[in-house]
From TrEMBL:
This is Class I and II aminotransferase. It comes from Natronorubrum tibetense GA33. One of its GO terms (biological process) is amino acid metabolic process. Homodimer. Residues 21-361 form the Aminotransferase class I/classII large domain. Belongs to the class-I pyridoxal-phosphate-dependent aminotransferase family. InterPro entries: Aminotransferase_I/II_large (IPR004839), AspAT/PAT-like (IPR050596), PyrdxlP-dep_Trfase (IPR015424), PyrdxlP-dep_Trfase_major (IPR015421). Pfam families: Aminotran_1_2 (PF00155). Keywords: Aminotransferase, Pyridoxal phosphate, Transferase.
C-alpha cells in the first residue's frame, strides 16, 4: 500500500524555495510564547538524575495521567499519553476498527486530511458527511449515513479547517448515534482552549462507553514540537490501545511530559484568555481585509483558521503556488480538505504578520 504525503508538506517546501519573502499561513504552529512554567520545567529537567532520562512508563507518567484525569473527570487508568493528538487519533481509530463492528469511518466534509489518511492506513473505508457553509454538522445527516458497517464517527471541534464549534446538543446526538450503531465517537478536541464562542462542548460531558476523546498540548501551550497528547478511552478499550502505543512508539518524551505537568499546575488561566484575545483581533483584521478584497469567508468560532473564496480563483495547489509567487502569502488549497471546499483557500492566523498578509491579499485580488 502506498501513502500520499499530505499537501501541507508540498506547500511548505514550495514556499521555502520561493525567491521572495513569503508569509507562512499554512500550518497551525502558534507564534506566541509557551507558558513560562513549561520553559522552567524543561530547564529543571536538564539537571535531574540520569535515571530520569530513561524510558518512562509506556502509558505516560503517572502524575501527568492523574492530573489529566482529575481535570477531565475520568480514571487515570483510562488515560494514555501519546505523541501528540496525531497518535491519539490513530490509537482511537484503530481501536474502533479492531472491534470487528464494520470497517467504515464516518468523516466530515470538509475534513482535516490526516483523518482520511489514517483511515486508509488502518484498512478502513471512508464515508463523508457534508457540513454546512459555516462548517456546522447536522447529526441527522450523520444518523442517515450510519449503518451496521460504521466503526467510528470522527469529529473535530473546534474545527480545522472551518472554525466551527459544535454545541452541546450536537455532541449529545453524536454520542447517541454511536451508541445506537455500536460505533465509537472519536472526538478530537485539540483546539478546546480556542473556543471563541463559548459554545464548545466536550464528549466527556456524556457518560458513554462509545466515545474516545483525544487532545494535546501542542496548540494550547504553543508547543507543537514537544509532542505530548493524550487519549481517554472507555475502560474496556484501553488495554489494547496501550499495547499498540507501546509497539508503535514505546513511550512519549519524558522531559516533555514533565514540563507539561509543571505548566498545567502553574499556568494561570489568563495565559489562555490572552491568546484567545489575540486571535479575536487577528480574525477581525484578516476578515476586514477579505471584505476589502471582495472575498467570501468563514468567521471562525474556534480554532485559528479562516477559509476564503476569491471569485474565479479556485482552491487548487496550482493557485496556492501562484499566490506564493505573486502575492507572497502561503495558504492551503481547499481541495486538501475534501470535495466541498475545492473553491476555497485556508489560512492559519498564527503569524504576527496577519495584517501584512491581509494587505497583500487585498491588493492582489483588488
Amino acid at each position: 500500500m502506498e501513502y500520499e504525503t499530505p499537501l501541507f508538506f508540498h506547500v511548505m517546501q514550495y514556499a521555502d524555495r520561493a525567491d521572495r519573502d513569503v508569509i507562512d499561513m499554512v500550518s497551525g504552529n502558534p507564534d506566541w510564547e509557551p507558558p513560562q512554567a513549561l520553559r522552567d520545567g524543561l530547564r529543571e529537567y536538564a539537571d535531574l538524575e540520569p535515571d530520569q532520562f530513561q524510558y518512562p512508563p509506556s502509558e505516560g507518567l503517572l502524575e501527568l495521567r492523574e492530573e489529566i484525569a482529575a481535570r477531565r473527570g475520568v480514571d487515570a487508568e483510562q488515560v494514555v499519553i501519546t505523541n501528540g493528538a496525531g497518535e491519539a487519533n490513530y490509537l482511537a481509530m484503530a481501536r474502533a476498527l479492531e472491534r470487528d463492528r464494520g470497517d467504515e469511518i464516518i468523516l466530515t466534509d470538509p475534513v482535516y486530511p490526516y483523518y482520511p489518511g489514517k483511515t486508509t492506513m488502518l484498512g478502513g473505508t471512508q464515508r463523508f458527511v457534508a457540513a454546512d457553509d459555516e462548517g456546522r454538522l447536522d447529526p441527522a445527516d450523520v444518523r442517515e449515513a450510519a449503518s451496521e458497517e460504521t466503526a467510528a464517527i470522527v469529529v473535530n471541534s473546534p474545527n480545522n479547517p472551518t472554525g466551527a464549534v459544535y454545541p452541546e446538543e450536537t455532541i449529545r446526538e453524536l454520542v447517541a448515534i454511536a451508541e445506537e450503531y455500536d460505533a465509537i465517537l472519536v472526538s478530537d478536541e485539540v483546539y478546546d482552549h480556542f473556543d471563541l464562542s463559548g459554545e464548545f462542548s466536550s464528549a466527556l460531558e456524556f457518560d458513554s462507553d462509545h466515545r474516545i476523546v483525544t487532545n494535546a498540548y501542542s496548540k494550547s501551550m504553543a508547543i507543537t514540537g514537544v509532542r505530548v497528547g493524550y487519549a481517554i478511552f472507555p475502560p474496556h478499550l484501553v488495554e489494547n490501545a496501550k499495547s499498540r502505543h507501546m509497539l508503535v512508539n514505546v513511550a512519549t518524551t519524558r522531559p516533555g511530559q514533565y514540563a507539561v505537568l509543571e505548566a498545567l499546575r502553574e499556568t494561570d488561566p489568563d495565559y489562555y484568555e490572552e491568546n484567545r484575545d489575540l486571535l479575536r483581533k487577528r480574525v477581525a483584521t484578516f476578515t476586514d481585509a477579505l471584505d476589502a478584497a471582495g472575498a467570501e469567508y468563514t468567521t471562525p468560532k474556534g480554532s485559528f483558521y479562516v477559509m476564503a473564496r476569491f471569485d474565479g480563483y479556485p482552491g487548487t495547489l496550482e493557485n496556492v503556488k501562484r499566490l506564493i509567487d505573486e502575492a507572497g502569502v502561503a495558504g492551503m488549497p481547499g481541495e486538501a480538505f475534501g470535495d466541498s471546499r475545492t473553491e476555497w483557500l485556508r489560512f492559519a492566523l498564527v503569524t504576527p504578520r496577519v495584517e501584512e498578509a491581509a494587505e497583500r491579499l487585498a491588493a492582489y485580488f483588488d
